[in-house]
Amino acid sequence: MKKRILYSLLLTALTLNLLLGARLYFSYAQAGEKDDVYQNIELFTRVLERVRNEYVDGDNVTYKELIYSALRGMLSSLDPHSEFMDAEKYNELKNDTEGAFGGLGISIGMRDNFLTVIYQIDRDCRRLLWVGKRRTQAALRRGLAALGEEVVGGLRFVCSDMWKAYLKVIAAKAGQALHVLDRFHITTHLNQAVDQVRRAESGRLRAIASAQAAHLKNMRWKLLRRGSRVRGKARQQLNALAASKLVTARAWILKEIFQHFWSYRSLTWARYFLDYWTWRALRSRIEPMMRVARMLRAHQELILNWFRAKGEISSGAVEGLNNKIRVVTRRSYGFRTYDAMEIALYHTLGRLPEPELTHRFC
User: Fold this and answer.
1) Burial class (CB in 10 A: 0-12, 13-18, 19+), 352
2) Whole-model pTM?
3) Tally of CB atoms within 10 A around 158
């Protein structure tokens, strides 16, 4: 008698368990079929609570971390180009694109193969301070002398490319300033290396009539663009190239991997990443990428100064000023004399005081 009662209780419990499980399953399936936002949110909330309470390390995981991770996964599942950014990452991106700066600094660069330009890149003022002929130490010394010892001595940041003449003069004249290398200049070197590999390999494959030459046809600008900005058919072509294991594909992957370097916030981890990337590029046996790796290793401390500046200096506004110089020179269809070009640049980019009106208006 007791066994019958026990068996009946067990059978009843199993039946109730199966009914509850089936009800939950069909409710979830029905929610998925109807695409009801409230029922799906309820499902998400239940899973969130279960992870928070039953995960082995749940005490060290906050609700904010779980929800932010879920949002990142949701957007990344849509396509490779959608990304969720928290407030901190968004502000960093905004500073990079809009050029928000802190303190006093200048940017020194070369334009059109024969100009040395010095920009002011303060928080509230971005303008052309000085422009001179040629790309030499003497030209930069004249530019710093024109600014005056008081201005040069008060500099907090200096941004420039890797030209040796600039590096020597900046170290001698503005050694107190934090010298940051232009990240766009580094990206240019990487793009040039990838393009050299592409041209060499494309010519070699065409010479032997290889079918793999089709992977490199009309791929120049797709390879030079940032990978996250390539979409549609161009994205499919890049994926096919990466799967082909050509030398160009390996060089392009190295270039794309290096873009992650700028996302670090810790100087220590950025140094580890730079050491790893240069080691990997030197072992790739791709000569153009090996040259870039040796160049980055030689200027490692100046590159890491970008992280020591902690976002107070951005080269985004510098690139904007450089583009305006290109616009001025193209709009004029060239200048016959250097003086005419210098005057045009100062009037366009120098933010000069406006002259008094020569006429009276009633």
Assistant:
1) exposed
2) 0.64
3) 26
